[in-house]
Each structure stands twice: as structure tokens, then as C-alpha cells.
Amino acid sequence: MSSNISYSEAKQTLEEIMEAAEQKLTPTEPEYDAVTKPEHYNHGKFETIEVVEDWKLNYHCGNALKYISRHNHKGKPAEDIKKAIWYLQRYLQVLEGD
């Protein structure tokens, strides 16, 4: 059986086959999960919640750490730093008995 196929047609077919094979070998990205894995949660080696739990931080300090660790990844860094300061000031009032 003889087939008359041009060089360019053969090249195009081979490129399509190779592209399809490459796509099958490429690992797929995990699905985005806005509840458990939003983008601003996943920077660096540890998630903030893991540090808060490991260090056994209380509510005030845990929230301050949360805002500090994520402030550069949500679009309003100054606002998040102000929130962290607010939590620390409130905790300081608790410690001082005010």
C-alpha cells in the first residue's frame, strides 16, 4: 500500500502526535479550592495554620500571624498589617488587664 503524503503533511501529523503525547505526560494542576487552598494561603514551606497550631498560639496572636504572613499576597498589604497590629494591641490590653 503506497501513500502519497507530502513532507509538510507528515511533519504536521508528527507534531500533532507529539503534542498530544506531551499533554498526556504533563502532570495536571490541582484544582483551585477557595475554601481550603486559596492562593494567598500557599506561599513558602508551611501554611500559616500549621504554624499557629504547632506554636499553640492564642486567638489574637494567631490572627496577627495570619495577617502578617499573607499581607503581600492579597492585594492590600497595609490593610493586613493594620489588622495584625489591631489584634496585637487588643491582646496587649488583655495582658495588661485594661
Task: Draw up the topology in text.
Blueprint: H1 7-25, H2 48-55, H3 59-70, H4 77-96
Helix pairs in contact: 3-4
What does this structure look like?
α3 packs antiparallel against α4. The longest helix has 20 residues. The termini are far apart. This protein has a domain of 58 residues. It is mainly alpha-helical.
H/E element sequence: HHHH
Global mean pLDDT: 82
Cα distance spanning the termini: 94 Å
Number of E strands: 0
Given as residue ranges, the uncertain stretches (5+ residues, pLDDT < 50) are: none
**What is the SS-derived class?**
mainly alpha
Tally of helical segments: 4
Give the overall silhouette.
rod-shaped
Strand content: under 5%
Bin the helical content: 55-70%
Radius of gyration: 26 Å
Q: How is the biggest beta sheet arranged?
A: none
Gist of the model:
This protein has 98 residues and is mainly alpha-helical. Helix content is 60%, strand content 0%.
Features of this protein?
98 residues, mainly alpha
